[in-house]
Amino acid sequence: MKLALIVLASLWAAPLAQAASQPDPAADLQGFQGYFLKRFPKVPLAAYVNGPYNFSKSERDQWKQIIEFPPYAFAVADGKTLFDTKFANGKTYASCFPNGGIGIAQTYPMFDAKTGRVVPLGVAINRCRVANGAAKLSLTTGKLADIEAYMTSTSDGKPIDVVVPHDPRALAAYQAGKEYFYSRRGQLNFSCASCHVQAAGMHLRGDVLAPALGLTASFPLYRSSWGDVGTLVRRFIGCNKKVKAEPEAADSTAYRDLAYFMTYMNNGLPIAGPGARP
Amino acid sequence: MAHQILVHAMSSGGSTTVEALIKHPMDSGFVKDKAGKIIPAHYIEVIEFTHKGKIVLTGYWGPAVSKNPFIKFSFKGGKSGDPIGISWVDNKGETAATSSNIM
């Protein structure tokens, strides 16, 4: 009897040990989205892309007035002009992307099997520039944010479709992003999840904390406190600084992996970018 | 790309509501750049809206107005298809104008 129990226990433990060592993005996705849907039963899945506006009527009313005449309109218009401008060699950005760069933002960040790294849209735009003999742009704001805003606007409403392929390097990047998301850091000892999972929908002084679900769908976005359009990386840097942690470099593997994990968790939600936030 | 003006004008119930977003740095002259040098004042001084060539609103603006200002107002009259003109002059003498039709 004792022997049988031990055998049974070891049989049961074996797949568990394997599950713990092997990341399972699909199961994480179900658990992640299910957590929020259960916690906020009144908010439909697709509405999460509007982040804090699901939890504060006054912010929602202000936002509705703001997007009647969106403050990111200039960024999208400038982005289109830049996107259509030819490089010195006569090619345009359209030559670097599938479908000429139109309606493809929902597939980023993408895993690049050649380099074994995650490529967010901003990095892909810079790669395109380097391939055509132009200098890299800042990944946080300015021209690159404008181009990203335009490209994202052409994907408006399309469901986010980030793929984690069966490649150990892709799974490792996903796992690293997940660990970054849940790890506490900085003088305040906060993780991303402290605010955007645990305290989602609650107030942080005057602002409402957006749930992590849907968070990436409206980037790049116009923040009134920036007075400008910025990318997801710009927000990562801002969040790290807010918890008094040393921010990573804009092009770092840590931020790429974090964007990979967070955007994968939003799979199936519609792109709502560019957005506007307080 | 330099000077953009976006205008929406809608008429309903005998009056027309005009909304405009104007791209302009609106530097007040009191802000320093990263090198510590003062950014020279650069702001819109006069803005004018016309309906069929007749002025319906004149704004005397100054350094207190925000960057990329938004303006919304309404006037009596106006019907779908009428032209709306908008123009501004800033303290450096730069100017921009655009026109649109009432929806």
UniProtKB/TrEMBL annotation, chain A:
SUPFAM superfamilies: Cytochrome c. GO terms for molecular function: electron transfer activity; heme binding; metal ion binding; oxidoreductase activity, acting on a sulfur group of donors, cytochrome as acceptor; transferase activity. One of its GO terms (cellular component) is cytochrome complex. One of its GO terms (biological process) is sulfur oxidation. Gene3D superfamilies: Cytochrome c-like domain (1.10.760.10). Keywords: Electron transport, Heme, Iron, Metal-binding, Periplasm, Signal, Transferase, Transport. Heme c 2 binds at C192, C195, H196, C239. It catalyses: L-cysteinyl-[SoxY protein] + thiosulfate + 2 Fe(III)-[cytochrome c] = S-sulfosulfanyl-L-cysteinyl-[SoxY protein] + 2 Fe(II)-[cytochrome c] + 2 H(+); S-sulfanyl-L-cysteinyl-[SoxY protein] + thiosulfate + 2 Fe(III)-[cytochrome c] = S-(2-sulfodisulfanyl)-L-cysteinyl-[SoxY protein] + 2 Fe(II)-[cytochrome c] + 2 H(+). Residues 172-278 form the Cytochrome c domain. It is found in: Periplasm. Heme c 1 binds at C96, C128. It comes from the Bacteria. Substrate binds at R235. The active site is at C239 (cysteine persulfide intermediate). Its cofactor is heme. Binds 2 heme groups per subunit. Residues 1-19 form the signal peptide. Belongs to the SoxA family. Heterodimer of SoxA and SoxX. This is SoxAX cytochrome complex subunit A. It comes from Acidiphilium rubrum.
UniProtKB/TrEMBL annotation, chain B:
InterPro entries: Ig-like_fold (IPR013783), Ig_E-set (IPR014756), SoxZ (IPR030995), SoxZ_dom (IPR014880). This is Sulfur compound chelating protein SoxZ. Pfam families: SoxZ (PF08770). Residues 9-99 form the Sulphur oxidation protein SoxZ domain. It comes from the Bacteria. It comes from Acidiphilium rubrum. The lineage of its organism: Bacteria, Pseudomonadati, Pseudomonadota, Alphaproteobacteria, Acetobacterales.
